[in-house]
Design goal:
single chain; alpha/beta; 15% strand
Length: 237
């Protein structure tokens, strides 16, 4: 099997254009929709559409207010189907925004879903849209851990973590110390939105055994769409 990996496509997320520095687009709904189509065209061109190919997405497929303007029966299926092609296997490791997407989907299906029961789960929504396999937790692939958010590995670990979540930012040695939960990304998001940081944002670093949380940055591979001009990586097993 051939494994291709990408992450954090953020379809319909207009603000990601600025946040993740996708400089080919303006921060408008029209350009965001064009971005969606460009991404799936790139995937279709650069990932072989063959039966022995697995395309992994490490989370955050859809996000943003523009989702609310879509109909439930067209754009989501179209984008997933283009990624899947005729022969590829399409896998998803759920990210934090994918879990929020279920709420939106239930609104589309049920209307006032707060007052009505539903049977959708995070996994079933994405399988319904066309993903072959959906995982709520990191997946072990040979010596590689596929995850949405980076997972902490000891410095002498024999595993490699292929992750999403950080967009154009990379895990460094002290990512899991004072940068725990990726504080750099949070600061950037608040700065870009002209909001002040929450009062409880900073914490006492003395409460953490920071030396034991240092990692080897070479054990981390950023698979985010925004991490490199190549957008998709192929791993050898």
């Amino acid at each position: 099997m051939r494994h291709f990996i990408t992450s954090d496509l953020h379809f319909f997320h207009t603000r990601i254009i600025k946040y993740a520095e996708r400089t080919d687009y303006q921060e408008t709904d029209e350009d965001c929709l064009r971005m969606n189509q460009d991404i799936v065209k790139f995937i279709d061109k650069n990932v072989p559409d063959e039966e022995d190919v697995i395309l992994w997405n490490l989370g955050d497929v859809f996000y943003g207010p523009l989702i609310n303007k879509q109909s439930p029966d067209w754009p989501f299926f179209e984008l997933v189907n283009k990624m899947r092609g005729k022969h590829r296997t399409l896998n998803l490791v759920l990210g934090n925004h994918d879990k929020q997407f279920k709420t939106f989907w239930c609104k589309l299906e049920l209307g006032d879903f707060w007052s009505r029961p539903n049977t959708w789960t995070d996994e079933s929504v994405f399988k319904f849209l066309g993903f072959d396999n959906v995982y709520a937790y990191p997946v072990l692939l040979s010596n590689m851990i596929l995850s949405h958010e980076p997972v902490r590995l000891s410095q002498n670990s024999t595993f490699i973590n292929i992750h999403g979540h950080t967009h154009q930012m990379f895990v460094d040695n002290d990512y899991f110390t004072w940068k725990i939960e990726n504080h750099d990304m949070v600061k950037k998001a608040y700065k870009d939105s002209d909001r002040g940081l929450p009062d409880n944002f900073d914490f006492d670093e003395k409460h953490f055994e920071w030396e034991t949380r240092l990692v080897d940055r070479h054990k981390y591979i950023n698979a985010c769409w925004d991490a490199s001009p190549h957008h998709i990586i192929e791993v050898d097993l």
